[in-house]
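Obj: model holo form, ligand = zinc ion.
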Amino acid sequence: MDLDQLLEISNQCIHSEPPVCVASCPVHMDVIAFVSEVEKGNFSGAYKMMESKIPLSRLIGKICDHPCEKACVRSHAGGSIRIGELEKSVVTFGYSAPKKPLLLPKNKGNIAVIGGGLSGCVAAIELDKKGYKVALFEKSNRLGGRLWEYVSKGLEAREIEEELGMIEQKGIAVHYGVEVLEEDLPRYLETYDAIYLGARTWSKSYTVDPHSFQSEISALFIGGGIQNPNALMIESASSGKRAAVSIDRYITQSSMLASREREGVFETKLHYATDQVAPLASVPLSASIYSQDEAAAEASRCLKCQCDACIKACVHMQRFSITPDSYIRSICHNERIVLGTRRANLMINSCTECGLCKAVCPVGIGMADIIHATRESMVKRNKMPLSAHDFALKDMAFSQSDYFSLVRKQPSKEASKDLFYYPMIAFSAYARGLYKGSGKTGYLFYPGCQLSSTHTDYIGSIYKHLVGVIKEKDAMSDVGLFLGCCGAPADWAGRGDLMHDNVEKIRQTWEAEGRPTFILACSSCASTFAKYLPMIQTVSLWEIFDTYGLPEVDIKKGKRELCIHDACAIRDNPKIHESIRNIVKTLGYSVQELEYSKEKTKCCGYGGLVACANPEQAEEFAADRICESDPDVLVYCAMCKDMLVKGNKRAYHILDIIYANEINQETPQKMPTLSDRQNNRKRLKRQLLKEIWNEEEEGAMDPTYDFALHISDEITALMEKRFILLGDVEKVVANSLSHQERFFNPKSSDYLARLRIQNVTYWVRYEESGRDITVKDAYMHRMEVVEG
Amino acid sequence: MNEHIDTTTEWVCDKCRQALVSQKVKVRYLDGNFEVDLLKCPTCQMVFISDELAMGKMLEVEKGLEDK
Ligand code: SF4
Ligand code: SF4
Ligand code: SF4
Ligand SMILES: [Zn+2]
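Output (holo structure tokens):
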């Protein structure tokens, strides 16, 4: 993984970009923090915010021309936030006299400030704060310049005097009635380490760098009226402040321009969209300034503009309180650790790779690809926590084994001749389809492992329906069947090696069958095929249903409203979104669209094997999705249904409504256990072979035991949580019985047995009564205990 | 891994009908090798691990080693 390239991406994230109000404020007052304090009614807190950025904030706060307001994005939604008015009322209600300044030693250098107007006063104050000995020269007998024009136009003379009086109290030497002229400059330059020239007018014009305010005489800095005669008050204040920064850099000999691109007014990369924002008018003033309540109400209109589109949408980022920029930094850190604990592992394995962040990000940053590459890199370097995906990968191996894997051509005409009799041939489209058998496989129905595990009993009916409708329209194309796993678990686990092998096998089957079109019923298969098998033409089962017609089932048309939860794996496939909605409407239901749907759909929590690596995070995904919807949910991915039902939401797979099994609103829904799922896959293969191909599976593959296991719901739930299969429990018990390898508890008469199966040791505590075995506990560890 | 491991138990080895004794046992996972006191049958050497130990301390150590 190229970590530098990754960091490059994180730099594009605009999460930390300031809102436009801050960017257009010459001194970058933190408007969001400020209004948040006002909203809380904390006026002194709000005043602190002003004080930290606005020089002479008690005065400027009352007369600032507030360029921020003009920029505020709220202007299109009821009117800009009246930041200027808020500042006035904050000064009024939140100002308190500062503590007596500490007189610190001023030994960084001697600076002359020429001109006691606003910018000169600010420069003097700022330089004093930085530790310089400042002498301020003013030709009149008072400081403040233009500030005095605001007396009884926003300011009181008393306030101005008090505030400017502080300047001398700080220890700045103020020389009144001293007019410095151009010809005096050389002398000043000799006496002082640097000069700030903030006079109104000057006889000679200098070239001044607009960023640093430095003139061609390197110790001479010029701001205020000379530099910009029409400056707003806040701009003058800003120039004094920035010149002070330059003087400090000049004297300490640090780079004059480094990281100063964004001083003063700049353009923010944040373009906060307000098209979804409900308009809300500004709070009117009932007196000359806002009352505290009015100010709080006005402050609450602020949108607190910040890009957090991805965080708002993703419970994973919320759980780890992380934004893509910091996420990427932790990934880089995690990748670089040579010795020590990789603390980000769990986080990296808790992203569902759902792609929502990318879909909502204004600059197109997505974590899914990054997480995928990271997991692959962890696997390659042998740093992927083994337990995170072990169960899912074993389950995938099960799907690829002979227990489930199967490829069959459509039953031949010859083999099916028993069906070709009247009335069968008249009423069964399937029989007619077989009758038209061409021997050439045009389509391969690929239901996928998860649908086969949880919606087992639909698969045969769907297959027959497909043969019927497809052969009707396209007599040349037979429909075959392919049971297997697309490899999504390996992909999610970062197992490029397994993925490669699996994809290769699928490709070979496709070649061997004469390159048929795959009919896919699972959203994960659809995305895996698109990503790894682009040469294979695919179509979703739902599109086939939508265009060729639905199975004829005696349907009482549903009248209810359902909300559609789109599958995240196919967020970019509008054809599937479309056909699902068509089917739902054809069946008489109305559709409620969720806020996050189609290309912006949310993940149910199964994606990325999060349900395996961090079950709590997966549950959070499901809960988050569930609370978005009021009516029952309609899904078209088996895993989505599983996750939502487990989160106690009524959810139907689209096949449930197609086959009219959206039954019995009262009974709680139940999903098959992990063991059921494997058994269902075995059963499906056996049943289809028998029913459709008239084949008996050679060799009974299942071991048989001469004991009967009894497992309560409670223990079943515990086994689910611990990823322990019934088959494993059986093996432990069988071994303990045949070898008497077990412990006995004379008090409870329980037995306790263990058996290592592959890389896990399973333990079962049970009661034995004749051939009845009642399981009381099941647990496991991966650590190997060396006996002997 | 030593702290909370019981040194006495009601469990006995079913085959050998022996009370269990606490002894040093080797355990390993990934790159980790430890010796810990565990209860075992003195005759057939079968080692006893409780639910609390397996799903508690052992799991914690496993996870810790996986993140190394
Ligand atoms: S809504 Fe608030 S944060 Fe956004 S631009 Fe306006 S004042 Fe600034
Ligand atoms: S879970 Fe989805 S939205 Fe969240 S970071 Fe991962 S890919 Fe992005
Ligand atoms: S959506 Fe997220 S990743 Fe994209 S810019 Fe905003 S905060 Fe950054
Ligand atoms: Zn023994």
